[in-house]
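Students often ask why we bother encoding 3D structure as a string. The short answer is that it lets us treat folding as translation between two languages. Here is a chain of 346 residues written in the first language.
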Amino acid sequence: MQWSKILTLYGVHAEGEVGRVITGGVIDIPGKTMLDKMRYINEENDWLKRFTLYEPRGSAQMSANVLVPPVNEEAVAGFIVLQPDQAHALSGSNTMCVTTVLLETGMVPMKEPFTEFKLDTPAGLIPVKAECKGGKVLNVTIDVCPSFAECLDTEITVEDIGNITVDIGFGGCYFCMVDVKQLGFEISPQNARKMVEVAKKLKKAADEQIKVQHPEEPLFNHIEYMMYTDVNGDEAHVYKNGTIIYPGRVDRSPCGTGSSSRMAVMHAKKELKCGETVWMESTIGGRFKAEIVEELELCDGRKAIIPRLSGRCWIYAIEHFGVDPSDPFQTGYVMADTWGPDVETI
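And here it is in the second language, the structure alphabet:
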């Protein structure tokens, strides 16, 4: 075996959503800020994303998180979320995965019953609080970045479907949310393929008909995800989410940034009060505990909230990825059979 490059990763999932954490083989990513580092991956060198997420080492149904030294001295570590399309500013489930790995591997000292610290991300500092017992992280609570409603009850015209009412919210990135009852199906594992196919049409229409722009960060200027919304008809205060992620798959977790965006929209519609506890439920039944812990105002005067989310993670693997100089697929490949017809196959 002759490897010219080796990465060490921990396999971990948050309520079913895989968020591998790269702990070895990467010293740092160029850039003075965390946003600069994210931009470097997206615009200059995406080797790390391709190597960890493309086949044969990866698959469409996962993310990877690269640990880097924090830029902000208040943080114990920095990280950037890698998904098959690009690097992203924030992910709630991946923040939980990173926290679990940092503590259960001893990279950050664990204190029982609670360990608290901050993580540096392109979306800003994220405070985390982990409940710990016997060397195990029982759950992770995170305070997400300022989240707000961008558009409420906005009508778009969707090909082959007609007029649909959507909400747009920001919770670390922009989400277009649609009440699934308008579409005649439920958020469920059995409907996952249909959810993906319909979301493609919905997102195309939303991208063409709705423009977004974060008031404080120019880089946040487009809708990243479609999210179906519903309620659990059997339990009060349980809200179902079905986020669709590139290249066309359902988020297995309740989606942290999506939950934050939905909470901001619910707050703007006076459906959710500060301090009220609810549960966000995924397509496969996993849940995040959720509440609004603060109300604030952005620079342009619009109202925003700080969402708080709690969820569970489990480490299931320790992996080493290597590069053999003779391997013709050193940076990986994708094919339309599993990645969908719109990906650039290589």
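Translate back mentally: The first helix runs from residue 34 to 43. Keep this in mind for the problem set.
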